[in-house]
User: Fold these one by one.
Assistant:
Number 1:
Amino acid sequence: MVHSKSDTTTMTQAPGISSAEASADERRNLISATHSGYRAVKRIFHTVVLILTSVLMAYALLMYQQQQSNWLEFESKQTGQILASQYSRIIAPSVANSDLPALNNLLAILTREASVKEATVYDSQGIVLAPAENTVSMVSEAYLSTKPPVTHVADIKNSSDQVIGYLRILIDSSVVLDPPIHYEQLRTRITAVAALIAFILGVYLTRGFYKMRHTLSFKANRVSARTFYRKTLNKRQ
């Protein structure tokens, strides 16, 4: 009878152990499948983020180049426009009175500006009235120089607001653009250094975060394993 009771006990415990093992296997398979799906979604998400980041970087670079070109063009025109507008008013009385000596003196003062390469006055018919002494060929300057000069033309008007002539100023773009280009290069270097510092800090912060994450994950897995082991023992008992 004792032998029969032992066999009965063994027979009753075996199905319980098999059920627990099957349940554990199913749980592992479910966790593995969930984890695999999560990893696939995470990879797709990171790939999309990387592609979008690359597109945004290319767009930002193109926009920066466009803005830089527009800014340099604005800087090159600003000085010449101001000089042409001011001197067209100053020389208007001399042109109206056909006072060539006074007109030549005013143009000589204008050409003393470091950025002015040439200044010429025309009448309303386009005939040259007073060219500057340091006249240069605009065509040769445009072909030989890496930074071609910029031409500005302003109307010369009398007291009745009638056009009596034109003032043409040839601006040396290298003189005008060298200072802003220098400052822009300094700003670019500072930005590059700041980006490098941010990258290095980001690498170390990310490294520290993943180390901390690994430690926390290891502790959480140990706690989960202990809890699961205790539940399994309780079921077997």
Number 2:
Amino acid sequence: MSKTSLKIKRNIDIHSKRTVFIGNETGEYAKSQINKLPKVDMRRAWQATLGAIPSMGAVKGTETETIKTYIAQIALGSIPTVVGSSEAFNPANWKNGDVNTLFADSLYGGGISGVHTGAAQAEVEPKNIVLGAVSYVGWVKDKNTGKWKYLNQDGEVQTGWKQIDDKWYYFDNKGCMSTGWRSIDGKIYYFQSKGNMAGSEWVQDKKSKKWYYLRSSGELAVSQMIVTNGNSYYLGKDGAMVTRGEIEWERKSYYVKSDGICGKIKNIITKKNLIDIGWSEEVITDNMILKLNSAMTEYDITNINSIRHFLAQCSVESGCGEILVEKYGKGYPSPEEYFSSRDFDELNNVHGSPAEKNDGAKYRGAGYIQLTWKENYYRFAKYIGDDDILNKGYSYVAINYPWESAGWYWSELKKINTKIKEEPDISVKRVTKIVNGGQTDIERREELYKKCCEKIKE
């Protein structure tokens, strides 16, 4: 971002309100002053750089010769410059629309202060350079507010939209450059810290840490699915990227992972499938079936053997969907007392949270596969990105992640899905050992697996 005070080599500042007109057709001021201002033959000035360069001392001769000498000195870097390359001054390298513009405090008395690369509106004709005073066009910083403003070609403070160097900026009615979120004509935009409008990119809100997507027009995308880098993401009503759960888009259902990536849910299991293997119709809802298929799709429980083993184990662990929280024995006044023997078990020790009293009850079995122990809750919380899983324990998991905890436990924690794919004839006893840690209710598990094989076909 250019400033009125340009800091250049050797720590010298150039303060300038003068610039150089190129050619004879660059403005009314130049036309009116054409006979009063000196002209410099740039081709001869370039030739001068090929010989000995005078020192920085006073140069004798006419005003035109003096200017030629200063230009030659700048070309070889004798005078501090913003653009110090002598090649930049070689007329042979000039192209239409690309010209070196000289900034000067006083070209007539004080000499040339520096060089700035800019663009000429008129066709470049290096034969003549006409010197004249014009208003400064560019960025200025308000000393009182510290905010950036932009002076346009009329010498006025810019307001509203302005495209500068192929980037869009917005200035309020006081001319201050916008940054951060801003509503303009009923549409939401985001402007980066340097003021340029965000477009076709993700922006993370500093306070909420949520992610938002700005379209190519700069408008905030809301209530829609977008595809970036080959992945699908869904943006809610407020524009925030949805993380976790299920969404509907264009009559199709999708699961959403913690990183926001969406995947189309496969219709693997139906309500009839569950009823056929012994589930009560009362515990089966459309939303429950959606979440079951969502978990099975996300965790790739799609192989027919994996499906049958998974449903058989979940059916036993949850009492065919009727028990989503591990029960405690009769005769005990509270679950805390019943599960107290687990309180200080090694499996309730996790990083930053050692086992303590009542951990046994807080992290008892929850969900369709009965996720148990603080260590497993901790790992699941980290995977999902939801600290309340660890903070609130069993009730939170049973309500919010009953199927997802089962899918994660099956495929991510215990890798049972992989084991079944590698060993298609794996026994129910071996799967039960991995899930249960023993052979509890093994007859019931084998019975349900057999029923799953009969009722659930490829």
Number 3:
Amino acid sequence: MPKHHSGSERDAPPGAGSDAPSCHLTRRQFLQSASALAGSPLMSIVNAKDAAAPAQATAASHSMPLVLKINGERHELVLEPRVTLLDALREHLGLMGTKKGCDRGQCGACTVLVNGRRINSCLTLAVMHEDDDITTIEGIGRPDNLHPMQAAFVTHDAFQCGYCTPGQICSAVALLREAQRGHASAATADVRQAGVILSDDEVRERMSGNLCRCGAYANIVKAIRAVAHPAAGEKS
């Protein structure tokens, strides 16, 4: 005869016998498991930070004492050898006049004078200039005593946003010294001549390493020529 099953046996799900393992989780057990899983990525981040700490300590241990002479003043610093002169000026000494533009030596915004010569401070390391005489825009002139080049930039409206102006002025000051010493450029018609006449073409060529996104080039040329040739500058 066929075996009859009770209603409770027919409705029971497969594997619901007394010997089957229980898969039921209480709410408390579920939350505990979820919390454990969620904590795993956090622990990974903490462990990564702990692993990075020795590397940071190693970098700090490689720092070295350094004395820089900037705008006539001595500054004692402790820097890593990889710190650029630009970052030393801005981040460690607070001389924010020197600007960081491209950080690739292509725009000239970071131009400073080292021993009277213009350089891109983003392309040189601070540790290379311990015995050098460094001049930034802060050392060119002061608001109450402007350098003639600074005054000419104001008179001839040779800037707009002003971000590139410190580098432009430092470069222009060095340009005048180069011309006075007879240094030729790619625009010099006769490199054998004793003196250099700073024509518009000469100024444009010698300032070609300093970019102005606002396009104030025409007035920059006027300002530089006004300082180089005061009489001609007054007429322009």
Number 4:
Amino acid sequence: MSEPLLRRDRDDRGVVTLTLNRPQAFNALSEAMLTELGEAFARLADDATVRAVVLGASGKAFCAGHDLKEMRAEPSLAYYQGLFAQCTAVMMAIQRLPVPVIARVQGLATAAGCQLVAMCDLAVASHDARFAVSGINVGLFCATPGVALSRNVPRKAAFEMLVTGEFISADEAKALGLVNRVAAAEALDDEVEAVVASIVAKPAVAVAMGKALFYRQIEAGIEAAYADAGSTMACNMMDPSALEGVLAFIEKRPPN
């Protein structure tokens, strides 16, 4: 029996781990892989018991981007438009999930693989990780990865990566804001778990409301952002976990 393209695991806390599983192809995003990811995210969006998602990969690389052999096999505008629309839908599904998605990155993350890291809410990388939007090296500007990249790192840094195709290290990625934490390869899982444990210890309602608001307001003008944020905080305050948390703080005791 062949190995699945996407492995799925879940622990008793509701933490789901999705693992890209095409190590022989550096986990390139084939159409089949994109379909698997899209279906997985759709199921997770409907599961209220999920608390966090870790997106990782098997083998030496996180993700080498689109499957170029597959792309070259069908050179038509309609095919390419459909492929990039499919990829965009997967990327947006990450942002629309009500729980945080944490990228666990080792090795290379290039082109749409770098985009995948940028679209995750949080990212933890091993010291050996390297990042690039390198399509320009074969004559293809990484336009869709650039959408995610330019919303994570400063404008000039993003543009330099896009027009040079050069790699940046894990430490450079952290300094630019593409990843949150960097760890030694042998400590990568422990660092990811530290992030996950902190998230699942928080009230699920507050995390879900906060994530949705975060992405809405960041694309809005400041007045609209404040209006949205104020309404969200008021609704959040009415949640029993928030009311109890505030009361416990006032009474100097752990929340029930």
